[in-house]
Amino acid sequence: MFLYLFAIIVCGGFMCLSIWQVINFIDMEADYMNPIELCQSLNQWVVPEILAHGFLTLMFLLMGIWSCFLVNLPLLAWHIYKVYEKRHLYDPTVVFRHLSDYKREGFVKVGFFFFSFFFYLYCIYASDQLAPLSLLSRALTVPAAAIYCYAERALCYLLLKPHLSMASDTESKCVFCAIATTERSRVVAETDECLVFRDINPASAAHYLVIPKQHIGNVATLRVFHIGLLERMLQLGTQVLHKQGYESSQIR
């Protein structure tokens, strides 16, 4: 019985850890942190997570609780495979290349631990040995509800964050956003979506920059719906140079 209680506590910790990992991946995708900081932050928890989950699965095996053992077996096999292939730690040189895979794995883990948490809770209530721990098991409904609310809010944050406006501290420090809002003296043309301005250190007689008015942190944050914006930016820049007498073959 106490093994179920231990499993609930450990599983709740795993669920929070997985949500935190996915948030870190999204932060790096949005250019809020660099790959080195990300890997240093995540790698310190990889081995403890693998060992804790392996210990929990072993205890289920030794105690003969086959249903819980079989539930945890796929994740244990995945951890063993990653350790065998030496892929369990995050490498800052390749983490950005596999970012989508890491995010997908994180979401799967969140769903797995979420299911496991309430599965263990059900096992406590369904156990024949419930009587000595009835008050304790019922008291678990309070932290269970709290963790459920936290997980629900965190998942909503994860799903909505990539589509939120980047009007944050990063935007306030963006040089291009400052030009678009305050430094208007160098602007030569603009539309509702983008503008053209002279470069402060021109490399040629007609050196202009075209930027969107919407803050975009870097190329990695571009989405499919930005394609039309990029095309209109290119058209606006071409129009400015054509008005100054430049041919299309001279534009680069």
Automatic annotation (TrEMBL):
This is HIT domain-containing protein. The lineage of its organism: Eukaryota, Fungi, Fungi incertae sedis, Zoopagomycota, Kickxellomycotina. GO terms for biological process: vesicle-mediated transport. PANTHER family: CORNICHON-RELATED. It comes from the Eukaryota. Keywords: Membrane, Transmembrane, Transmembrane helix. GO terms for cellular component: membrane. InterPro entries: Cornichon, HIT-like, HIT-like_sf. It is found in: Membrane. Residues 175-252 form the HIT domain. Belongs to the cornichon family. The chain crosses the membrane at residues 5-23, 50-78, 107-127. SMART domains: Cornichon (SM01398). One of its GO terms (molecular function) is catalytic activity. Its main location: membrane. It is a multi-pass membrane protein.
